[in-house]
Design goal:
The complex is a heterotrimer. In chain B, about 30% of the residues lie in helices and about 20% in strands. By secondary structure, chain B is of the alpha/beta class. In chain B, strand 6, helix 7 and strand 7 form a beta-alpha-beta unit. In chain C, helix 8 links the parallel strand 5 and strand 6. By secondary structure, chain C is α/β, with parallel strands linked by helices. Classes of the chains: A mainly alpha, B alpha/beta, C alpha/beta.
Chain lengths: ~210, ~750, ~300
């Protein structure tokens, strides 16, 4: 357990629901869930076997104070952002955002599952797009292939070579991007300063809530 | 009552009747077979002009009996209201033209139907007398309230506010009941976020200040005799004399007791002082009085587990099978006692379903905000330890069967048992065989609450689980003892807010019953009815069917063992009349004759006409309205049926069926309410008794050499608007399949 | 002057040489025919997409979108923003909604924008290109320039998720949106009914959970085939890529013989408006739409 995690656990000792309400994006909606299960039934079918707990169960676990089980769960990381649960929820819970919010919080505390591929994708994507202000698709792909090490990356690259080749032929994959070419914003410096400030403000806001 | 009888028929040709029917032929039927002295047709009979025409004939032409041949008896009742005149209604609109197609092929059978209904209305009114009211009225208007808890105090205050005298009898030395033991109660006001004052002191002060209310503390009822409007009640005081009060009506609000937690040793009760029931927790809360909560040993409670459904909602049959209706909210409230005093106390509520309906949902959320943890689980065992208890449970969220929590204190939500007195219908149980080693079973004798001086027994009949009986859906306060109402948790499990609403409703019903009793009128469901049963004693064989069957305990026996009617206890269902084998019981406006004459008035076509006749005897509370509503929806049904409303299936005398079959009817449909455990009968037992009686009709059919299907018993609810016409048609088809009755033309 | 002008937010995938470059090409050609002027927001940046949620947190994501709002507002005043990518549109609209409803979040955003020398006065309206077509122009206007109806061709309109949920197009049902079918019919094609119209393709999880995502994609393509479609049509770059480029892998894994071209609605419109295969960016399809290439050549 990380230090940040221990601090928060102690801060919100016997009230995990409040912790989620204050620290996770859209967490204040969790208490509205009426356990109908429409969210679970609406999630893309092929993601079901990957869940530890469907969304309504996650919400109930939050209310039941099952902190560790929730935060270390892989369930939130299965979200494809399809928003099916979101539009169907009879209580209008923004479930997609709540799932993202809980996942982000677990990651922030350092208790998210290790080697979670979607977490890795999220990190890689954000780092990639904020580096120059725009996504570098070649580098993104490369870092995703090579996340498990050099040999695994080569293997994955070979598996995917037909896909890549197709895109190159169709002029939809510019290998020059790998060499530092490609698209970027002009005001990279401004973007990075702006994002640094945003991170700082967000951390301050969440800390203030925890301190209140 | 007018000495001379003069009969008149009024036929309406409005609402399409004139276009669809041959009115002249209807007039002829009323004159010729109906033998009406006056027959008039009006194009809009329920208009002021039409009504004035009838009024004028009554006032100036000596008309005493009126057959109105227009719409259903359930329509235009305010227009056709002539209190001193006997009225019958021929149902030509809902009963004929609205259920028949407007086609050339149908015209003949539709006309036959209408003419029969005209003849039936004429025959009925000729057999009727306009009732003049029960002479044995009691004029007392004092309400007796039994029980001084929240329900009882509320009934007393509501009746007093409406201007009635109240006698309030309380068994203990103080008013307040359960609520007085509560440190605080579940909130009743916006924003429904925190427990509030239990409200007892305020109600007690109001009662003490009210000159209309006389309170007897430490008192019980030694005897309750008499009838609505003239009860005599002996009140026995613990230390002192017995006082007799004259009473008009009674509200019984005797509440509940907690289910005995000693029956739950597996949950640690009795093994440790740190396992308490909800009442025990209230005691601790009152001791803490807003400060930190402490256990019996004086230690501050740092963790508490609430066990919901302890000994209730139990499927094994060992404990209560039902829900208390309040203890989820109570646990929410009790958890707040801890959180409000010290937010660091760990409060866990273990539940299977959290039932906090209505504003309870806000209260529940408020508890979540205060940090109370609600977790789904079924507790299997509470193991008291030296300092803390271990709660073992099946975690239903994670399906962990071996979950457990430690807690300084465990609170059991144990459920309720009604204080309803003696179960008068109980079959004495055979003495249980002594099992080896087991302690001898001591049978607890329940103590009567009302000590009614009725031949049916000393208390109100009970329904499931010992709660007092009432018509659950339509008439919740109404018991089977006229002018005695039950309110609050003695009637069904409920919380304080519901009990107070219940108590208000029961007080209003009791006032209505007293007022009606004074006027000689019936109470629900024939509220205002002036008719009452009389028996021609010279024909009576003293068989006691009527005294036994009366669902309301209205009939006693006199010294010569003849039936003795308590008219003001009677609800006018006619079950006695249906039961009487020698047909000596009748009402002035409803008798074996009024129905029998209608049955005979129907024209029976001969065997070769291919026109069967099917008699429908339809309960006026559900089946007949359902027929009317089917008509409003223009749901068509067979032209071969002739429907007669009856007060209750219980009032159906088998002679009607025998006569109908003898005179050539091809089938008889009986339509009554659902009976049994989930009864819908407005007279509680009427439809059940009627059905039992009519189940013997098979022998009659056999003797007549008729098919069993010629009599068909159908359960009908008021909502069967679409299915009922279909069932009628199915039956008509069945009759045609069986063939025409051989009894025609005799 | 064009009849409509918009601040154009192409997004990272719709750039030259990027994975949806054919979308960009066909949209530009389509807008030219319809007399819509789209001007790229100067120095626009990535929206962050849905997938960045874990690393980005809340405020940085909104700040990224806010920067685009500020740039559009100051450089292209009075113009609505139009996005072609479903994720860009959704991300931008979500940020607009949150910022407008949460003054604290807005204040923090302004403070962060200050670091890049920017600020927001009023956030412009944010539209997806299909909203521009359907709501601002209308089907009748779209039909007028049709010279070569795509008669006799059967398409499965694959709406997918993010143009449909949570905001939706033109107030249509989330369960059965019909705008794409109507667009297909507007250009003379036949829209086949099939049951996977709004099924998720897996989105970004096609990278991180490929087996699960490909199972979804298989269901979509299979249903389109089963209902007689010859081609899939989409309004979203990620839907397009996911349903197109993994067909080979799905064939290997499941033994299927999928080879269904996946087009953008804009490509169909360009062809119906008489554009060439190149203008419609048909060479940009990994699975070549031979039937359409022949059609364009006629």
């Amino acid at each position: 357990m990380s230090n940040a995690n221990e601090q928060m656990a102690a801060r919100y000792k016997n009230n995990f629901l409040k912790e989620i309400e204050e620290q996770a994006e859209m967490g204040e909606w969790v208490k509205m869930c009426m356990q109908c299960g429409v969210c679970s039934g609406s999630c893309p079918t092929n993601f079901h076997p990957g869940w530890d707990h469907p969304p309504q169960e996650i919400f109930m676990m939050i209310r039941a104070g099952k902190r560790e089980e929730v935060l270390t769960s892989n369930s939130m990381w299965m979200c494809t952002s399809c928003y099916n649960c979101y539009v169907r929820c009879p209580r209008k819970l923004p479930i997609t955002h709540i799932m993202h919010g809980i996942a982000e919080y677990a990651y922030r505390l350092g208790v998210a599952p290790k080697f979670q591929p979607t977490l890795h994708l999220s990190q890689t994507f954000w780092n990639n797009c904020t580096k120059t202000g725009r996504v570098n698709e070649v580098k993104l792909t490369q870092s995703l292939y090579f996340k498990d090490g050099f040999m695994a990356g080569i293997k994955k690259g070979l598996e995917m070579k037909d896909v890549a080749l197709g895109l190159v032929k169709a002029k939809r994959l510019n290998i020059m991007e790998a060499l530092g070419g490609g698209h970027k914003c002009k005001d990279i410096k401004g973007i990075q300063a702006m994002l640094a400030k945003a991170k700082e403000l967000e951390a301050k806001r969440k800390a203030a809530k925890a301190a209140a | 009552m007018a000495a001379e009888k003069k009969h008149a028929a009024y036929i309406c040709s409005g609402c399409g009747l004139g276009e669809r029917l041959d009115i002249a032929a209807l007039e002829a039927a009323a004159k010729k077979e109906g033998k009406m002295q006056v027959v008039k047709t009006h194009a809009f009979l329920c208009s002021a002009e039409g009504v004035a025409m009838i009024r004028n004939d009554i006032d100036n032409d000596g008309v005493t009996h009126v057959a109105i041949c227009a719409c259903s008896r359930r329509a235009k009742t305010e227009a056709f209201n002539f209190p001193t005149t006997a009225i019958s209604r021929g149902n030509l609109r809902e009963g004929v033209i609205w259920v028949r197609p407007d086609t050339d092929e149908a015209r003949e059978t539709t006309q036959e139907m209408a003419e029969d209904y005209v003849r039936m209305a004429c025959a009925e009114v000729k057999a009727m007398t306009q009732p003049s009211g029960n002479p044995n009225t009691g004029m007392n208007k004092t309400l007796l309230v039994v029980g001084g808890g929240m329900s009882g105090m509320t009934s007393a205050l509501e009746a007093a506010k409406a201007g009635y005298k109240v006698v309030l009898v309380e068994k203990t030395g103080a008013l307040g009941g359960w609520a007085a033991k509560l440190y605080k109660r579940v909130p009743t006001r916006e924003p429904f976020k925190a427990p509030q004052d239990n409200g007892v002191a305020d109600l007690v002060a109001q009662i003490e200040a009210d000159a209309n209310i006389k309170v007897y503390l430490n008192s019980t009822l030694a005897k309750t005799a008499g009838a609505p409007g003239r009860f005599k009640v002996d009140i026995a005081m613990e230390s002192g004399p017995t006082v007799t009060e004259d009473i008009g009506a009674i509200v019984q609000a005797t509440g509940f007791s907690l289910y005995d937690a000693n029956k739950l040793p597996h949950l640690g009760y009795g093994k440790s002082p740190h396992v308490v029931d909800q009442a025990g927790l209230e005691e601790l809360a009152r001791a803490a009085n807003g400060g930190v909560m402490k256990r019996a040993d004086g230690k501050e409670v740092k963790s508490v587990v609430f066990v919901q459904c302890a000994g209730q909602r139990d499927a094994t049959g060992e404990h209560l099978s039902y829900c208390s209706g309040y203890c989820c909210n109570t646990s929410v409230k009790q958890a707040m006692y801890f959180k409000d005093a010290n937010p660091d106390v760990d409060c866990v509520v273990l539940y299977t379903d959290l039932r906090t309906p209505g504003n309870g949902e806000d209260f529940y959320r408020s508890a979540q905000n205060k940090g109370v943890i609600f977790s789904k689980g079924v507790v299997s065992e509470v193991v008291p330890g030296g300092n803390a208890c271990t709660v073992k449970f099946h975690d239903l969220i994670l399906d962990d069967k071996a979950a457990q929590i430690e807690a300084d204190l465990v609170v059991l939500a144990t459920g309720v048992v009604p204080n309803s007195g003696v179960n008068i219908d109980a079959v004495p149980a055979a003495p249980a065989e002594a099992t080896e080693g087991a302690a001898p079973v001591v049978e607890e004798k329940p103590i009567s609450i009302l000590n009614l001086d009725y031949r049916q027994g000393p208390d109100i009949p009970q329904f499931k689980f010992g709660f007092t009986d009432s018509h659950f859906i339509c008439f919740p306060y109404e018991t089977r003892r006229t002018a005695i109402y039950t309110a609050g948790p003695v009637r069904r499990p409920m919380d304080i807010a519901q009990a107070q609403e219940d108590a208000t409703g029961a007080a209003m019903k009791a006032i209505q019953a007293m007022e009606n009793a004074g006027l000689g009128k019936a109470a629900h469901p024939r509220a205002g009815d002036l008719s009452f049963p009389t028996a021609r004693l010279e024909g009576c064989t003293q068989c006691k069917r009527c005294t036994v069957e009366c669902p309301f305990g209205a009939i006693d026996e006199d010294e010569k063992r003849f039936p003795l009617f308590n008219e003001s206890r009677c609800r006018r269902c006619g079950t006695c009349m249906g039961a009487c084998p020698v047909r000596v019981i009748s009402f002035e406006n409803y008798s074996v004759n009024t129905v029998g004459a209608q049955i005979k008035a129907v024209n029976i076509p001969d065997e070769f006409s291919e026109k069967p006749r099917i008699l429908i005897l339809a309960c006026e509370n559900d089946a007949y309205p359902a027929l009317d509503m089917a008509a409003m929806n223009r749901n068509e049904y067979s032209a071969f049926v002739r429907a007669i409303p009856v007060r209750c299936l219980g009032s159906v005398n088998t002679i009607w069926i025998t006569d109908a079959l003898n005179s050539g009817y091809d089938g008889v449909m009986l339509m009554g309410c659902k009976h049994g455990e989930e009864y819908q009968c407005h007279f509680v037992k009427g439809s059940e008794l009627g059905r039992y009686r009519l189940s013997k009709v098979g022998d009659t059919l056999k003797n007549m050499n008729l098919e069993a299907e010629r009599v068909f018993d159908l359960e009908v609810a008021i909502t069967d608007i679409d299915t009922l016409p279909r069932k009628i048609n199915d039956y008509a088809a069945k009759i045609q399949e069986i063939g025409m009755s051989p009894f025609k033309g005799f | 002057m064009a009849r409509k002008e918009y601040a154009f937010y192409p997004g990272c995938s719709s750039q030259k040489g990027a994975s949806a470059s054919n979308y960009l090409t066909s949209v530009e050609s389509m807008c030219k025919t319809l007399d819509i002027k789209i001007t790229e927001i100067p120095d626009w940046n990535c929206c962050g997409a849905s997938i960045s949620y874990a690393e980005a947190g809340e405020l940085p994501r909104h700040v990224m979108n806010a920067r685009n709002f500020a740039l559009a507002e100051s450089n292209l005043p009075g113009q609505d923003i139009v996005a072609t990518c479903a994720a860009c549109w959704l991300g931008a609209r979500e940020s607009k909604e949150r910022l407008e409803h949460n003054s604290g979040l807005m204040a923090d955003t302004q403070e962060a924008l200050k670091e890049a020398g920017l600020n927001i006065k009023a956030i412009p309206e944010i539209k997806h290109m299909v909203e521009v077509l359907i709501e601002d122009l209308g089907y009748d206007e779209l039909k007028k320039p049709v010279k070569k109806p795509l008669a006799g061709m059967k398409f499965a309109g694959y709406v997918g998720c993010q143009t449909n949920r949570p905001f939706g197009i033109h107030g249509e049902s989330f369960e059965n949106p019909v705008y794409l079918d109507k667009l297909i019919e507007t250009v003379g094609g036949e829209a086949v009914p099939y049951d996977q119209k709004v099924t998720c393709c897996g989105g970004a999880l096609a990278f991180s959970e490929p087996d699960k995502a490909q199972a979804q994609i298989k269901d979509i393509i299979e249903s389109a085939y089963d209902n007689g479609a010859e081609m899939l049509v989409t309004p979203c770059p990620l839907c397009q890529a996911n349903t197109e480029v993994y067909q080979g892998q799905i064939n290997k894994k499941y033994g299927t013989k999928f080879n269904m071209p996946v087009l953008y609605y804009s490509q169909l419109m360009v062809l119906a408006y008489g554009g060439s295969a190149k203008e419609a960016a048909l060479p940009g399809n990994v699975i070549r739409a031979r039937k359409l290439e022949e059609f364009a050549g006629k």
